[in-house]
Q: What sequence folds into this?
């Protein structure tokens, strides 16, 4: 990985993702922290591109920045006024300790271990331009069972979400859902 | 404490990505534990999943555990599953948040104490 | 009150308008150095174009860099030349990349300027009025005048608005409209971002705009804005699924997610995908009008219901950016639509003779005209009608269509019959299935033309409505 662009991209994007993740923690307003969360997702997608994972990067933008954030917007809007506050709970101190501990542990292990990693020529040999075909082969080849289970999981999540928030007709607010045809 | 290898040669190694991933994961834990709001907790969980994705992709890119002919993209396939589960989990968790709001008129997790002790 | 004068005396403003210099006087008033420069510039340009034209017609320069049919070759040879000169490859990539980026942005800027003029003039023709015709010849300078007016206006921030979020959306909503142009192929080698995940890229980039719309609506602290934003977000989320299903059908048929390869497939078989999968093309067109807030589906900014929707509280150039993005999205959808369904830069062999980017630009213009036509013709749908149409009609039929196309694609990959016969059969079968399915599904959903008459009363007496009706009224 000797390209200058990738090195610059790594430092800029990693700084952006860590700082905006911190701002998710620190923002006073829930929607502000949602915006910073989207910035984190986008810079993570950029980091994926520096790892030559183009398919995953685009899927990350599509799923996280495009869909999950919109889901969160809907959740914020469906829980009016009670949910705009981004305050901390009584678990702030244990949370801080746990987070710092995990980050320090991962950082120490990452720096301390002698990873048997590819460099130079070996890294360039695996730097192929597109990953879509290989991922498709893997998903429908070696991991086909997991793929099918994941699709069933998605279906059940869809049904479960609908069943959970579906208004029974007795509650009388079904008219606001529209579409009675 | 061993030094991070070869910053002055302007290269990025596996350790760099792992450190970034660890930082984001730690922040995710703090957000998930320390926030009162159910939706903010969900944001923390998504941050943690994203950090895991970064780790998987970094290992898939750098690790030489795979032989030359073997598929080096198993990490990518795994990330696809993580994305799937994250989407499903977000949908269910947000539905739960809306449901809790309807029952309890709040999404403040400190006040949702149906099962006390 | 005895005798009305034929014509009122001109007010000072009308007098000014009548006394203003015409086109000829304006041209004559240009200073001499500008005239000389313009003449020299035009002459040199014409000479260069004539020379290149001569070389191309002469035929001995097949596929070289000065071939105007594919500007990508020129950039490629420039890159090779720079590499031969010993220039570092990063600088080479930066130079060629900025050439492409500036090219795309200037084309987009030109479209934005001309497009708003075209929209207003054509819409005026549909509504039997004149449209902008004062500024410059035929009112061609009206978009520039509008832009200057918008930029010189004061920017008002509403009381109680969320300052931080209020500033983001006008910029954020421009990003997808710009980035979406990257994977569009303008000619076989003229492709700014040649990636294998082009289709996913288009969908992913377009999904970022949802957040911008929501933030604009929420941060304005206005009920109309919030209503428009929630309508738009709900509709965009719903209509992303039919778009994805339609594009999935195209990807299954052509066997690639690279936009260049999809266009090359259509050029190779001399067929457009719209003839093979008409339902997917219709679903894409309808869903993208909902996605970009064009008029049959513009409930997010319905002027007659909620003032201007999510950008009610924006003023000055911020509102101008939203309006420009609306236009830019329409053109971008035109480009994506032409690339996926209308053959992109190919036109049944004509691309051998005419530059591919001109063909693509013509197709974009045609789709854009269709959008303007729809805007001038159709009334607005209701929110529940639109949501119901997406979830009950487009998505189930889109899934069935994708399933059928998957079967057809596997048949096409295995059969030895000539492609003409196979693809023709696919087109006929898909059209028949579409008609049957739409009919059956409409019956299933309880739509009956006998109860809901669709014929407007103006048409029922034999005239055509619109211009004919107006002439009839005028004659009586």
A:
């Amino acid at each position: 990985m000797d390209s200058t662009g990738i090195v610059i991209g790594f430092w800029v994007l990693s700084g952006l993702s860590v700082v905006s993740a911190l701002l998710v923690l620190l923002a006073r307003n829930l929607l502000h922290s949602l915006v910073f969360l989207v910035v984190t997702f986008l810079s993570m997608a950029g980091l994926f591109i520096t790892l030559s994972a183009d398919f995953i990067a685009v899927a990350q933008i599509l799923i996280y920045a495009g869909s999950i954030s919109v889901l969160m917007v809907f959740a914020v809007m469906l829980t009016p006024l009670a949910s705009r506050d981004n305050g901390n709970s009584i678990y702030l101190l244990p949370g801080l300790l746990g987070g710092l501990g995990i980050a320090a542990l991962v950082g120490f292990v990452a720096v301390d271990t002698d990873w048997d990693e590819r460099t130079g020529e070996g890294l360039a040999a695996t730097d192929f331009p597109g990953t879509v075909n290989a991922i498709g082969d893997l998903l429908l080849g070696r991991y086909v069972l997991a793929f099918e289970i994941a699709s069933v999981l998605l279906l059940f999540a869809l049904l479960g979400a609908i069943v959970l928030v579906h208004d029974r007709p007795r509650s009388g607010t079904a008219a606001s859902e529209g579409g009675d045809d | 404490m061993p030094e991070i290898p070869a910053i002055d040669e302007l290269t990025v190694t596996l350790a760099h990505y792992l450190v970034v991933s660890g930082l984001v994961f730690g922040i995710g834990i703090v957000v998930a534990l320390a926030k009162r709001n159910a939706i903010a907790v969900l944001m923390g969980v998504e941050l943690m999943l994203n950090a895991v994705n970064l780790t998987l992709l970094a290992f898939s890119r750098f690790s030489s555990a795979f032989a030359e002919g073997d598929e080096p993209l198993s990490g990518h396939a795994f990330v696809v599953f993580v994305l799937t589960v994250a989407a499903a989990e977000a949908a269910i968790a947000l539905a739960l948040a809306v449901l809790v709001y309807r029952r309890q008129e709040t999404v403040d997790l400190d006040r949702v104490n149906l099962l006390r002790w | 009150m005895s005798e009305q004068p034929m014509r009122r005396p001109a007010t000072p403003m009308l007098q000014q308008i009548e006394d203003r210099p015409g086109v000829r006087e304006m041209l004559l008033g240009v200073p001499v150095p500008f005239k000389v420069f313009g003449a020299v510039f035009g002459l040199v340009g014409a000479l260069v174009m004539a020379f290149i034209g001569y070389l191309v017609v002469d035929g001995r320069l097949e596929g070289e860099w000065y071939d105007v049919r594919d500007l990508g070759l020129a950039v490629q040879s420039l890159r090779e030349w720079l590499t031969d000169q010993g220039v570092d490859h990063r600088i080479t990539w930066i130079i060629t990349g900025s050439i492409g980026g500036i090219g795309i942005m200037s084309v987009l800027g030109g479209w934005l300027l001309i497009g708003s003029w075209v929209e207003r003039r054509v819409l005026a023709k549909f509504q039997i009025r004149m449209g902008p015709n004062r500024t410059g010849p035929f009112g061609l300078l009206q978009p520039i005048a509008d832009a200057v007016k918008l930029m010189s206006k004061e920017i008002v921030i509403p009381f109680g608005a969320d300052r931080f979020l209020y500033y983001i959306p006008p910029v954020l909503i421009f990003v997808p409209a710009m980035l979406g142009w990257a994977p569009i192929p303008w000619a076989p080698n003229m492709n700014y971002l040649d990636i294998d995940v082009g289709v996913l890229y288009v969908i992913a980039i377009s999904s970022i705009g949802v957040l911008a719309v929501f933030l604009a609506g929420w941060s304005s602290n206005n009920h109309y804005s919030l209503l428009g934003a929630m309508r738009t977000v709900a509709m965009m989320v719903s209509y992303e699924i039919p778009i994805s299903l339609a594009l999935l059908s195209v990807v299954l048929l052509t066997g690639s997610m690279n936009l260049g390869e999809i266009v090359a497939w259509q050029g190779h078989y001399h067929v457009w995908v719209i003839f093979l999968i008409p339902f997917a093309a219709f679903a894409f067109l309808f869903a993208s009008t909902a996605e970009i807030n064009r008029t049959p589906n513009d409930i997010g900014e319905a002027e007659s219901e909620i003032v201007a929707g999510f950008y009610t509280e924006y003023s000055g150039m911020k509102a101008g950016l939203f309006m420009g993005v609306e236009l830019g999205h329409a053109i971008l959808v035109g480009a994506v639509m032409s690339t996926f369904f209308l053959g992109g830069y190919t036109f049944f062999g004509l691309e051998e003779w005419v530059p591919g980017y001109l063909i693509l630009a013509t197709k974009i213009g045609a789709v854009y005209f269709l959008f303007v036509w729809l805007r001038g013709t159709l009334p607005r749908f209701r929110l529940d009608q639109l949501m119901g149409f997406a979830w009950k009609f487009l998505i189930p039929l889109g899934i069935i269509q994708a399933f059928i196309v998957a079967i057809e694609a596997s048949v096409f990959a295995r059969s030895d019959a000539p492609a003409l016969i196979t693809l023709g059969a696919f087109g006929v079968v898909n059209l028949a299935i579409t008609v049957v399915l739409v009919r059956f599904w409409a019956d299933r959903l309880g739509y009956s033309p006998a109860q809901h008459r669709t014929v407007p009363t103006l048409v029922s007496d034999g005239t055509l409505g619109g211009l004919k009706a107006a002439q009839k009224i005028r004659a009586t």
